[in-house]
Amino acid sequence: MLDVLAESDHLGADAGLAALYDLAMLGGMYGMFAGARHAAALVATVGGDPVRFVEQRLVPWLTALLPVLPSTAEADDPADSSVAMQRVAIANIIRASREQGLSGDLLAHLLAPIAPPADPRITEDVLRLADRTAG
Is the separation of the CB atoms in 78 and 86 below 8 Å? Predict the structure, then answer.
């Protein structure tokens, strides 16, 4: 039955491994949904049609980016794009979102590409940069 969604395979005797892979796939899915929700909300703040935006702009954009995903899994750090550049880009997204009145709850996923979850310094640095570039 699950082969309808994706190819199934046997991961080994450890039943916990299948659960871990399931959680990893769900983490990727929820990250995508959080990003899409944030993008639609940002467009809606200026009267844009969020559904049309997602259908006509976001889905084609994300579809075009899908072939890049395997290379992101190989890197220990974002070597193709400097962390400093990503911090500035994410700070700009956070600043614009705040200016449009979006909840900070929708922004947490933006920090994942540049920092491991256990490194709060990166989060603090990006938020400080967003505060400095505001206004």
Answer: yes
